[in-house]
Amino acid sequence: YDVFLSHSYLDKVQVLALVKLFNKHHFCVYVDWIEDKQLNRNDVNEQTADLLRKRMKQSKCLSYLTTKNIINSKWCPWELGYFDGLKQSKCCILPIMEYGSRFNGQEYLGLYLYLEYASRAGVDRGCDFYICNQNRTKFIKLHDWISGSTKFYQGTLV
User: Which of 46, 79, 98, 107 is catalytic?
Assistant: First the structure.
């Protein structure tokens, strides 16, 4: 997988839209309830954790979908921590809804780059996925970042 999408199941509608958008840009996305339908959210056990670890090892990056619902997730912080330890510097935050810029109670999220769907001002004709710093002044295309490039550009995303 290109992207392991860590999210709250309560954001299912947004997740489906994101998967469609990722696929449009030729990314293979892992979402547990889409790819591994046999998982039972009411019976989370050691096998569940083992399968998630396996899927994270098969993924190139993790995107942490930040919404008001993720605050109550017990699994998402575990996924982020496990993946960050596994593949340092390949985790990003995908803020699809503003719920506070300081990540109250989850201040550690401020350590990560953002993933945004945008275009480069004056350069791109269409939108693409970009990894950027939190003030959006340095960025790199997600495809390039996943491939190992560290060349960030300066400019503006719109």
Answer: 79
